[in-house]
Structure formats: structure tokens, C-alpha cells
Amino acid sequence: MKPVAILRHSPEEGPGYFATFLDRHAQPWKLFCIDAGEQVPLDAGDFSGLAFMGGPMSVNDPLPWVEEECALIRAAVAQHIPVLGHCLGGQLMAKALGGAVTANPVKEIGWGNVRVVDNLPAREWFDGVEEFLAFHWHGETFSLPPGAAHILESHHCANQAFVLGPHLGMQCHVEMTQKLIEQWCANASEEVCAEPSVQQVEEMLANMAKRLKALNAVADLLYKKWMAGLKNYCP
Q1: Residue 199: is its pLDDT beyond 90?
Q2: Which are the contacts of 74, defined by CB distance < 8 A and separation ≥ 6?
Q3: What is the extent of the structural domain holding 200?
Q4: Distance between CA atoms of 153 and 112, rounded to whole angstroms?
């Protein structure tokens, strides 16, 4: 059984709940710590799927691995290998597939509602869910790549997620755990400001157990749909 490749771009932005989900479903995975100097995999065909995590950098920064990952994404799509992107990962997908990544009108940080777009692809991925509370931490946003369907939006960011066949790119974070949120908040001093689109640390840490339980349920829905596209998946 081929593993899912997970590409990490920051030591504090690991796979989180996504890894928990894969383990629960006995799906092997392999972590590539790009932030620690590991090389981007060369052959998408070595994996059943590819998942790209977040990071504080921009896909427009002159980093050598950005184009390497974009090439890997294009190769996976050409081979019908499902690709999954979280925040920076979603931006990498958009860039690789012909979209653009630009500044969002505002920073969007903390818990905030996202709405499921009223179209058939969105309904297929969200199975009756119309709105949910997601976690956000971004200052940039992506445009939709050609052929992609828009499936999520929020008040502060129009393009929160897209799908292109079995491929899912997200701006928001559904992979959050208590540990990840606490780590991000501990290093949030330069990011947190007095803007309506940015929560204070105390607000982000409040009611975490209840919020994470609900977010995990949405993540289960999305990850299950995505995992169904893996060539070695056996429900």
C-alpha cells in the first residue's frame, strides 16, 4: 500500500488532525520536513496521495522548493493522484494549476465562520453541512485555477476552498489540534493586531475543546471524501 506524502514547511505547522485521521483509517503516510532541508519527492507516483501543509512564507517568495512542489502537484494531477492543500498548501495548488496568490484584503486570524457555496461540487464534498467554524491564519489568498469549483467562502476571504476532481485546496485550516493552536498563539505577537478580522489570543484559546470537536467532524467529512480517491483505498 503506497503511503500518502505529507509535505511540511514549518516545524509548527505539521499534519495535526490529518495524521490522526490517516492513522485511524490505517492509511500509511510519510512526512517530508521541507523546513528541515529534506528534498521534495521527485515522483508523485510513489504515493497514493499528496498533502501540503501550511507555513509562514509566501508561495511568491524565491524559495527553490516552491517550484519543485508546484511541479510535483502538476505531475500528481496529471496522474490522477489526489492532492490536498491546507492554507499555504492550497495556495501552492492554486499557483501550480494556473491560479494566482495575492494579498487578501485583510489578515484573517482566529476562529471564523465559513459558508459552503451553493453548487453541486460543494454539496458533494460537504454532505449537508452549510456553515461551520474554521480556524484561519493568513494574509494572502488564492484565485481559483482554471476548471476548479469554488466550494467555500467567508466574510473576510472569498476563496476559502476549491475542488478540481479529487483534488482539494483550502485556505482555512481544518487540521487543527489543541497543540497546534497553542503553539501558534505562543508566537502570535507580531501577527495579532486590533483588526475586526483578527482575534486576540484569549479568544482563540477559548472553548477549544468544543470548537475542535466540531471542526474535527467537518475534517472527517472532507478527509474521507478525499481519501476515497486514493488508488489503494479500501473502505
Answers
A1: no
A2: 96, 97
A3: 4-227
A4: 11
